[in-house]
Amino acid sequence: MTSIQHNLQEVRQRIAAAASRCGRDPQEITLLAVSKTKPASAVAEALQAGQIAFGENYVQEGVDKIQALADEQPEWHFIGPLQSNKSRLVAENFAWCHTVDRLRIATRLNDQRPAHLPPLNVLIQVNISDENSKSGIMLEALPELAQAVAALPHLRLRGLMAIPAPEKEYQRQLAVCQKMADALASLKQHYPFVDTLSLGMSDDLEAAIAAGSTMVRIGTAIFGARDYGTTPPQQ
Questions:
Q1: What pLDDT is attached to residue 230?
Q2: Contacts of 57 (CB under 8 A, 6+ apart)
Q3: Which CATH architecture has domain 4-218?
Q4: Tens digits of per-residue pLDDT, 125-144?
Q5: pTM across the whole model
Q6: Residue 120 in 3-state DSSP?
Q7: How do residues 99-122 score in pLDDT, each as one tens digit?
Q8: Helices 40-48 and 3-21: crossing angle, nearest 10°?
């Protein structure tokens, strides 16, 4: 068993245990393996271990891996901040975008999505902890943006994403995660097809699952420590 295969097994067991504790079916929760800064060979290793969905934070790095692994057909999610000048690459290459936080980006993704591809699955990013350093909209702006995104024909609004501020205490993690779950439930009242809450990473996975997350984003626990080298990766 390879280290990545072993790590995936451990993460899946942790997800299953967290789901079991709150009476949920582990099959309801998608594991998104965050492969940023890792080579295509590491993704290939995870694919061989049964992992399907992968998250990339940097557009060009992600596109390079998508091209290198085109024959393997993994499911690619863009989960990093998206600059307008890189939206076409996301629209043309990824199946999901988790970080829609303004109508301009949504419109560009819609207009740039190739006609031969299915609609791009999108999540609206919410700045749930009101951090100046984080992308995402405030909850009060969600209804207006959701209405606009849902009307775009080449996008498919699937739900919400958030990166809560770090909290060590479980109950504080749970409280923030519950706010996101409530926001998704409210969104579903208007858009019954909404089905995804991308919430939870290594440090708050249990709280996110207890609150109702349907997709957790795990990187280091699967692939090991990230190596950014001497220069940051290209967006």
A1: 42
A2: 34, 36, 78, 79, 80, 233
A3: Alpha-Beta Barrel (3.20)
A4: 999 988 776 789 999 999 99
A5: 0.95
A6: strand
A7: 999 999 999 999 999 999 999 999
A8: 60
